[in-house]
Each structure stands twice: as structure tokens, then as C-alpha cells.
Amino acid sequence: MDQSGPRHFRRPNGRPAACDPCRARKVACDHTRPICKRCLRGRQGGSKCVYSESALPSSSVSTSPAQQVASARPKPAFKVAPPGIRRPQRRRAPVRRGYLGFTSFSSVLEETVQSLSMVNGSTPDYSQHTAGPRVVQGEVRFSDLPLPLQEMAMYVLSCLPGQPNAHMAFNKTPHKIQDHFYLGVDRVSESVTEIFATLAKHDERATLEAVAEFLCANTALPLPDVHTSAIDHIEQFTGQNLRWESLGLLWAHLERVGDLINAMRTRRVVWLDDRPDHEASQTCLTYCVELSKYFSAGNDLLLDISRRQGTLLSIFDGDANLSCAYVTGATASMLSYLGLHVLKNPDGYQPSSCSENKRRLFAQVFSGDKLSVAFTGRPPLISRRYCSTSLLLDLPDEVLSLDQETITRAAESLDSKGWNTDGAVYSATVIRARYICAVVRDELLEMALVPDQDIPREQILAVREKQIAVFADFPPALHFYPSNLADASVATPVLHSRLMIKLEHLQNLFFADRLLRLSPSSHDMGDIVLTSFDLLSVALLFWTHKDRFAATSQHFEWLVIAYAVPAGGILCQELLQPSFNGTHPSDPRVSRSSIVQKLSLLVGFLDWVHPSAANGDMCVDCKVIIERVLNEHLNAAERVESDGPGWLAKEMEWEGFQTQLDFNLELLDTFDWLRTDGS
């Protein structure tokens, strides 16, 4: 059946095509047929308004804006060949099933192959019979991507330096830091600058589409996870191999999410005009991860970016938020998918940049999972029982960036336990220590979170003694001493790391003491008051010396809830129901007066956190409770003497707190003294 009327042509993205005059002048067209209103109002009265089908991109010939820019562009100085001249195929690696363990079908098939080899006398080669790689023949066309992915890509690119919505700038100041991560950030920055400089003379949107198409094509190519040196590894995601994961690295570096040492160093990427926009960085990092996942089945670099994304969400959304749970869950799944949890050192192990990077990633993800579990009380995503990856060696980042011979010599200089012997604190030093504490914490969390089990006191005490032993076995360079605060020779990153390791050690003791106190055979506060006093004292140092730790102040909101508030809850209980008179019999530092002083500082710390912060509502609630405890305690000294030390807990009927107050901190929730249900 013949249908009359104008035929409405559409562009590859589905939008109506503009008329020829509007397209030539690059102005908005309202697509009115047969003559658009803009042309009708013009001098020609619409006589030149034509909708030409020949002007539209053909389905058989690639003429997208990105390709038009590439075809018209002279040979650039940038090493990456322009899109349209060098067109990487969208090749996906052979269907990668990831790590498959003992219970998988693969394990049984491998046993069958071994049996066949015993019968035939040799191991048959079945590689030619396996399914071939899933290769999507053809080019990665930006216009063919789903519209949400196109918008993600355009937004991320528009926020880069020199672009219309720029939020960051590259720090070109020379530096002496030569570790793997910093070298990678510098090389990515150079690559981004060069590729945009190559396309600087072309239309803005076409330029962004060309760059996006180039990044998508590279990200679709497999990223080898075996390399001989750090430089080889960096070259796999920079220059002509620039990927979406590479841009994610820039946003993570901008927000100082990585490890404790690098977080305190001078950044190679800074906020434009010193105006932070954390929402933009969080969005861009999330988009980079999503774009990478669309094209890639997973790799070590993507795992690292995903881990950093989880840290960023923890800071700005809070650990209890579902968005943070999604990302940490995806990171843990990718870790086991890549098999990084079963990297046991073989006999005669020779460390390399690649192998040590994998062990570092595992330790960081494992430790991060234990921090999240301690905060939320939710079951862990990774258990030590299913992991056999060996502990990373205490090698400097600078050494791992050098040749294999240098790495081997550095490994030979370590002590028998893998620590460096020069008394320095490297990123690997801190990651090792935190991982060792995390393994002990995994045992404690297992006791605390498994329901309906009676844990013998001896078992809890054994784990507590283990934590004391492993902490005492740490190198002297990792131990914090109060004199460090006034010692200018102690670098701020080192001091920050010592404090964090001290906090994690004390938190493990806190969990053990809390389990001991809650055991059926215990009726006293035991050492938990002393542990809580120390835990709160160390946590408060970050606030009382906040100028020195200004570079990581964005972590303070999480830190006060994770470490200071639980300890403060125990000390509040001690004020309400004293377990000793005067000073503590085991530690003269702990008295009624010193407890009040520490809690008063904690109130100031909580008040410093803005209510709109990720954990701001928790901080407000905790501050109100602690203030009321302090007020009642300070105003009721005489009545305590006359009516007994327990009167305050019996008569507290506070408006707004008469029902159970639950901070959803589970194991950390030390405010159970507020509950009226008798639980």
C-alpha cells in the first residue's frame, strides 16, 4: 500500500535529521516538514529548505562525526592513530570463565583429562575443539552504543582538563616519586593531553565522540595481566592503549583514595581553581567503571578502580548505604572471579611487579571488607578460610617500578618474615600490617556474627593474645609513640599510618573484650574500659591535630563513627554504672575526670561533622546522647553518693530516647544501655 507524505529521515542515534541549511549553519532545526520554521523566517522564505537523504550517514559507510573528524585530520603527533585510520576491532577475549574451583565442572573434567593421559601416555590437546573466541567483527561505533553509555562517556570526557565542564587540572610540577601508581597517573595525564591537543581544531562534540570511540575500542581489547615490568604494565593502559579504566585512575587519584601513604602525597591531578566537586568525581569514577565493565570481562586494573570506587562511596555515602554495599560486593566478586584469592607462592617464588601487585590488591580488598563488616555488622564477603594468597612482600613502590634484577635483589634483603630491614615505612609495609590485623579480625567477626553459638572464653582469649603478639611483632617503624606528634622528623604520612595501625590493633582488642564481657560467665567490665579509653584517645588525635592531617580530613567522618563512638559508648556506660572508684586499679591514667575530658572532646569532634555528611545523622544522635550523659553525671555527684552509683541508669527517661535506639552498627553498637526492652 502506497503511503504519501514526507519521509522523516533519522540520524543513527534515532533523532530526526535537520534540514540541509540548518545542518550547514550548525543551528537547531525544529524538523518541521516540508519547510522548517527557521528557514521559513529567513530571507529565502524557505526556498532553500531541503531534507536531503544523501546528507545522512549511510548504514553501509561509516561517516559518524567522530569518523569525519578523523578522516579530515592530518597525521597527528600523538602516537595513537586517529579513529577512522586505525580502527581496532571490538574483539572480546575467548569466553573467560574466570577462576573455577574444586566444586566446579572444570575440576572433574581436568581429572578426566589426567585419566586419559594415563591411558594414552600423553596429555591430549583439546584447545582446537573448544569454542572459539566470541569476536564481534566490525568496528566499535560510538553511535551504536546504548544511549545511557553514550551519555556517560560524554559526561566523563567533558569533565577532563580543557573541556567545557572541566573539574580537574593536571599538576605539571616535577616530582621525585617514582612508584608504579604515580608513574601511571602521569602517563595517563600525558596521554589525555596529547589526544585532545590532536583534535583541538575540530568541533567540540565530534571531538568528544572521537575520543570516546577510541577509548571504547581499546577497552574492548583484553588487558593482559601478566607483564615483565611496571613500565610494561603502564603501557598497556596509556598512550595508544588508553582505556576507560585509565580515566578512572585519574578521578581516584584526585580524591586521594588508594592507600594510606599515597593518600598523603602531593597529587598529580588537582581540583580546577581549587574548587572540589565530590559529586562530579564520584559520578565520573562510577561511569568509568560502568563503561569498563561493558567492554571488559574484568582485569587487575578494573579491580583496583572498583576498590577505590568503594572507598569513595564509603566516604561520601557512608558504609551503611546500599550504593556502597553494591560496589564492595562487586569488588569482592571480581576478586574471586580473577582468582586473586588463591595465589599461593610456589617453591622458589621470584617476586615481580605483576605478582606483587596482585597480592597487594588481594590484601587491600580483604582488609577493606573487614573494615566494612566491623562498621555494619553484616556478614563478610571474603573469608580467610577460602583464601590461600600469600602475604605481599615489604618492597618499596620505587623498586617494583624497576627491572626484575633490582626487584630480586631487594627481595633478598628482606628479613625472614618479609619485612624490609632499612626501617622505612612503604605502602607495602602498611598494607601488610593492616592485612595481618584483618586476618585476626576475621576470626573475631566470625565469633561475633555467627548466631546461636557459645564461644568458650579460652577461644576468645587465644585470639586476643594472637592480636597482641602480631602487633608486637610489627617492625618498630610501625609503632606509634606519643612523642611522634612533636617530632618533626616523623613524616606526616608515616605518622598517619602509625595511628591507623594502632587504631586497628585497639579495635581488635575492643571486639575481643566486648565478646568476653558479653559471654555468659562474665559479669564485669574487665579490660574493655582500658581498651576503650586508649581507642578513643588515639582516635581523638586526628581531630586535635586536624591541621596536620588536613589532606585526609574527608575520612574523619567515617573515622569518628568507626573508632571513637563505640569506645565512647563504653565510657558512657562506665559513668552510669562505675566499675571502680577513683582511678582505675590497672591504669592510673583512667579516672572519672579523664573519662569526662575524653568524652567532652568527642562531643566536639562529633559537632565538627556537618549534619549533611555521609554519617552526619549518626554523629548528631551520638552527640546528643553523650552530652546528656555528661550533663547528668556532672550535675549529680551528690546524689550518686547518697543514692548509689546505679540511680542514673534507672531514672533516665529522655524524651525521644524512650524506645530502643539502634544506630545499626551491630557489633560496634555499644549503646545497648539505652534500650528499655531488657535485651
From TrEMBL:
Domain Zn(2)-C6 fungal-type: 18-51
Listed Low complexity bias regions: 56-72
Residue ranges crossing the lipid bilayer per the database entry: none
Entry keyword set: Nucleus
Chief location category: nucleus
Cellular component GO terms, alphabetical: nucleus
Annotated region (Disordered), positions in chain: 56-92
SMART domains according to UniProt: GAL4
Molecular function per GO: DNA-binding transcription factor activity, RNA polymerase II-specific; zinc ion binding
Keyword Nucleus: yes
Superkingdom in the source lineage: Eukaryota
SUPFAM superfamilies reported in the protein's UniProt record: Zn2/Cys6 DNA-binding domain
Compartments in which it is found: Nucleus
Pfam families linked: Zn_clus (PF00172)
Designated name of the protein: Zn(2)-C6 fungal-type domain-containing protein
Organism field: Bionectria ochroleuca (Gliocladium roseum)
